[in-house]
Specification:
By secondary structure, the protein is mainly α. It has one domain: Up-down Bundle (Growth Hormone, Chain: A). It has 16 helices and no strands. Helix 3 crosses helix 6, helix 4 crosses helix 5 and helix 5 runs antiparallel to helix 6. The two termini are about 15 Å apart.
C-alpha cells in the first residue's frame, strides 16, 4: 500500500483525513465534559484523574494485540472495529449513574480508542509518499486539530444547553460518520508485508525482550519524549474546564477554540520545515512554547492571561505532536508501522493518563496552579534531554531531513 508518487491528496488520503477528524471529534467532545460530569456527580480531582488514567490503561493494553489484529483482520477492518466500539461506548455513558460505573465505560471506550488511533496513523503512513511524510502527517493532523477546536466547545455547549445525554448522542453520531467515511476509501485491508532493508526490523519472537513487547525497536527515544509531552498536554486538556470554573471564568470553550486555531496554523507550516530542515527546527521551539504556556496557565487569573496560555500551548503542541509522530513512524520498516504507531499512541496515552492521575492527586493537595508548574518542569527536563541528544548525534530527532525511500 506504499504510495510511490508525490501526490498527497489522493482519494484515500482525503477520506482518511475526514474520517479521522470525526473519530477524534467524538473523542474530544468527551475530554472536557466527562471530567466535568464526574465533578458534578461529586467526584474528587483524584477520581477525575482516574477517569483519564483508566482510559489510558485500557488503550495501552489493547495496543499490545494490534499485530495479532493485523494478521487476523487487516488494518482497515481493525480500524472499523475501533470506530464501532467507540460508537457503542458513547451510547453507554448516559447509563452510568455513578463515577465508579463511568470508569467501566471508560475502559471499553479506551479499547476502541486504542485500536482506532493505532490504525489511522498506520494506514495513512502507507498512503503518504515517503519524502513528504512530515508534510502529509501534518495535513492529516489538521482534521484532528479542527476536531480539537470544534468538539470540546461544542460538547460543553450541548451539555450546558441540552444536557449530557444529548452531548453523548452527538459524540456517537460523529463516530458513525467516521465509519461511513472510512467505507468510501478503496485501499486494501491487508497489511504491508514487504521487508525494507534500511529500516529497523522487529526481532524474532523468541528473541524479543519485555521492552520489545511494549516499544517497537528503534522508537524508544522518541517514545520517551512523547510521554513527557503527553504529561504536559494532559494537564491542560483534562483539567482546564475544571480550572476555569475555579477561576470563575466564563466560556472555557474559548481556550480550545483559540488554542486549536494556533495548532492549525503551526501544522500548516511546520510539516514542510520538518521535511526540509530536520526535526530540531520544529521540536526546540515547540518545547519552549509549550513550557511557557504551562507557566502562563498556572499564573492565569483573568480571561486575557487564560487565552494567552491557550495561544502558547496551541503553537507548542502544534509543533511537537506531528514532529514526534513522524520521527516515530519513519525509522521503521513499512510493515512495522502499525507497531510503531502503537508505540507512539501508547507513549502519548501513558503521558496523558499517567500524568493526569499523578497531577490530579497533586492538585488535590496543592491546587491546580502548582500541578501546571510541575508539568512545566517536565517540559524543562524534555528540553535538557533533547539538547544533550542534539549535541551527541544527528538523525530523525536531529537536524537532518528525512531520507527518501526506494
Amino acid at each position: 500500500m506504499e504510495q510511490n508518487g508525490s501526490t498527497i491528496w489522493s482519494k484515500n488520503f482525503t477520506g482518511l483525513v475526514l474520517s479521522n477528524g470525526f473519530f477524534f471529534g467524538g473523542f474530544h467532545m468527551l475530554l472536557p465534559t466527562v471530567p466535568l460530569l464526574a465533578s458534578d456527580m461529586g467526584g474528587s480531582k483524584t477520581q477525575v484523574g482516574l477517569i483519564a488514567g483508566i482510559f489510558v490503561l485500557s488503550s495501552v493494553i489493547t495496543r499490545l494485540f494490534t499485530d495479532l489484529g493485523v494478521r487476523k483482520l487487516g488494518k482497515r477492518n481493525c480500524l472499523l472495529l475501533g470506530i464501532v466500539i467507540s460508537l457503542f461506548s458513547a451510547a453507554l455513558y448516559p447509563f452510568a449513574p455513578t463515577v465508579e460505573t463511568m470508569l467501566w465505560v471508560r475502559v471499553l471506550h479506551g479499547v476502541g480508542f486504542g485500536i482506532g488511533t493505532t490504525f489511522y496513523v498506520a494506514i495513512v503512513s502507507d498512503v503518504i509518499p515517503a519524502t513528504r511524510r512530515g508534510e502529509g502527517l501534518g495535513y492529516f493532523g489538521l482534521a484532528t486539530t479542527i476536531a480539537m477546536a470544534v468538539a470540546p466547545a461544542t460538547g460543553l455547549w450541548i451539555a450546558k444547553e441540552y444536557g449530557f445525554t444529548a452531548m453523548f448522542a452527538m459524540a456517537g453520531s460523529w463516530e458513525l460518520i467516521a465509519g461511513l467515511l472510512l467505507s468510501t476509501c478503496g485501499f486494501s485491508s491487508a497489511p504491508t508485508s514487504a521487508p525494507h532493508p534500511e529500516r529497523h526490523e522487529a526481532p524474532a519472537i523468541g528473541r524479543r525482550s519485555v521492552l520489545d513487547i511494549f516499544v517497537e525497536p528503534g522508537t524508544l527515544f522518541p517514545a520517551f519524549l512523547v510521554i513527557m509531552m503527553g504529561i504536559a498536554h494532559g494537564s491542560v486538556i483534562n483539567f482546564i474546564a475544571v480550572y476555569a470554573n475555579e477561576l470563575h471564568l466564563a466560556n472555557p470553550g474559548y481556550f480550545f477554540i483559540l488554542g486549536t486555531g494556533c495548532i492549525f496554523l503551526s501544522r500548516l507550516a511546520m510539516g514542510k520545515v520538518y521535511d526540509r530542515k530536520g526535526p530540531a527546527w520544529v521540536v526546540l521551539p515547540g518545547v519552549i512554547l509549550l513550557l511557557t504556556g504551562l507557566v502562563t496557565v498556572a499564573e492565569a487569573s483573568t480571561m486575557e492571561v487564560y487565552l494567552a496560555a491557550a495561544v502558547l500551548h496551541g503553537f507548542g503542541i502544534g509543533m511537537l505532536f506531528p514532529a514526534l509522530q513522524t520521527a516515530t513512524i519513519s525509522d521503521v520498516a513499512p510493515q512495522r508501522r502499525s507497531a510503531a504507531s502503537a508505540t507512539f499512541s501508547n507513549a502519548l496515552d501513558i503521558g496523558l493518563g499517567g500524568g493526569s492521575v499523578l497531577l490530579g492527586m497533586f492538585a488535590q493537595k496543592a491546587g491546580l496552579p502548582s500541578a501546571y508548574l510541575c508539568a512545566a518542569a517536565v517540559m524543562g527536563v524534555f528540553l535538557v534531554i533533547y539538547t544533550i541528544h542534539l549535541m551527541n548525534q544527528k538523525g530523525l530527532l536531529g537536524t537532518e531531513p528525512l531520507p527518501e525511500e526506494e
